[in-house]
């Protein structure tokens, strides 16, 4: 990958002085247009060999741009906040909103590369992790982010010279901050890095290999590449591919797995009280236990309006130490959330170890309401199944137990509950004209729910279908399921 | 994945009799429109559990369609022709041209699944192979193929009943032709199959899970799904995404690895004769040797017009047993080739074990002439780097040695050779007005060549840059390199 970059490239210093002002003006103009239009976010990954000048190009770029709309995200060893959550959490946390540019230093490539170099990671596992990175980056770019990945390379001679000069100047031996290629292990490292670069040079996010022996050449190339990319995207927004295949499989009888539930299941009042108390005590013990402190729980509650999601969540929450859980009601996304890829708003609520997050509606909105209402394009919700599976797999790998509940009621029961809400004063606010309109789309929702369950019920994060016609039955089933999932995991 | 498919789905027999004629007419009309327009090819993969009726749905489809424009490709254990080539070769061989429908029975999924079930394949390797399948299918669909993948599922009770009836009728015990799920091992197999289906249900080629307990339900769903997919593609051709990022990295000094070659290298006549004869003898011995009989060679020759590709190939061929090699001059694609994904024309020439294929120009045309002349869109040639790396990796895994030569000459030397050709009568045909026009694009070619070498020189299939200003030097270097590569591999 480095063939052309490692030959001599020079740019005359005086010519550089002449060219630089135009580049600077161009970058600033492009950035201001981006800030004004807020049409996309740009993520610039900077990585490369020791002594190639990663810090220098970042300084240069910050000099050129308006610093109020740029952020630098540097990642070293994870701190406490970070290490108590899944690996990818910190990268998600820092994703810039539309209109903003982020410079990423020490990226999601570091982990797989380090493990591979240490030999913890066989070739198969390495390739699998790179495939996951490709899916992640494809998701970012599909969501409209401009992703530029720079790899700075420097010849062995120049590298040695620079690191020596650094040591003489500071008395500090250069430490390989990133394992991309330090001087001594260069020979062993290079083929692995080249393999990584090749496998993650995709059409949506190719690596840009930057020859860095000559600082003027390096900086001018760096700046011009960014300028050209910004300009191209500002002038010509990406055209998303239409899905090549009809998403809706003709489901002739419109029967889904929901139709197999026995919604007549009930729990009498006495039995309910006893079962509820038992399950709550069990959950409290589990969540306070030593073993849970290394794990976490994410529970998603989905169901039609008035299916009893809130009531079930309250019964779960009641059993827990309030410092250890948080309930996240998911309504329309905020401006901040709209400015980022759709999974960002859920990543930000991923709990740290020993904690629980209860979602009243969840990321499944993408394949339910957004699909049915047409808020998401067919291509968007079709690829969401895979993205959601990746998301939950990442949570599971980070030690988090993922529980997902579909609270099922009949259309008739929903009507009864709506009418009851309209009569009871303090429940009146819970019912809106939109709730009535949604009833008309009941059948289309059933198909979407069926597809969702089929495509996202994984062994690690299975769906639990809850017969919710009787609220008592539903609440106990939810609590007991969470207890069982935790017991299995701990 | 099978939740909704495994519940009861029924379609009344009489209703089926009423609905079927319309479906049949619709399918036939859609097919004839496809044959006429030749706008795309359709590949229908049929797989699923034993006794689910895979054969039945194929028969039904053949009944419905005009059989002259349909082919059934069934793959069992590879025969001699197939097993002497890389795994994917037979699937490429049979890819239908535009306007045609192929039904694939026993697909590229069988191998990874079998190895996984046998336990030969760890989870990491399994996932890596599925990632390779996803890239393969994405390539097919990006190239315009409509890919439909059906998985037929049947409940345990119905499966048992059908296989029992089959045995009573024929006296033959049903043999698990495909390992997707037979009766006995169902429990063990199902989670693995579900994992496979989930990981390869992409937005460009999602799996379609077909409930098959009720034959009428199954057949009607099957037919309607195909009909809808055909119609949608006929009415609305896929819009390809524009590349989200400018492909051309500003290469300020336009220097590439080509500029580092010492083109003054020469070989005097005497030394040439001796070196040539030695290398030819060495190559003959290698190619006749026992060890080569399990391997094969693919050599690609690229270079500017008049760089001496033909001459070098002749010197290589001269050393070989004519029954063991074939030279493939690559000019404009034929109609047959244009009707299929661009790599098909090279896959068809992949040699069997013990044989050699010499390509005079190659698959690199995609990122050279097609890029420079604009015959391929930016998105197309950008993704081609990864596709080509995948292609060569597949060859290498199949035991084939891949050698790639760039024959480098200066623009001035090209001019001298052009002028000489115009003077020598029997070489006159070798020079056309287009050759002169291409000279004007010399600089753009140099950049494309540099990118090509950077992005496709892998450890398994490295580029060899040949200083070709002196033809004798070039020929000897080519021969010696092939010998070295073979010696390393054998």
UniProtKB/TrEMBL annotation, chains A, B:
The keyword Transferase applies. Keywords: Transferase. Its EC number is 2.7.4.33. Pfam families: PPK2 (PF03976). This is Polyphosphate:AMP phosphotransferase. The keyword Transferase applies. It comes from Benzoatithermus flavus. The gene is pap. It comes from the Bacteria. One of its GO terms (molecular function) is transferase activity. InterPro entries: P-loop_NTPase, PolyP_AMP_Tfrase, PPK2-related. Residues 11-233, 269-488 form the Polyphosphate kinase-2-related domain.
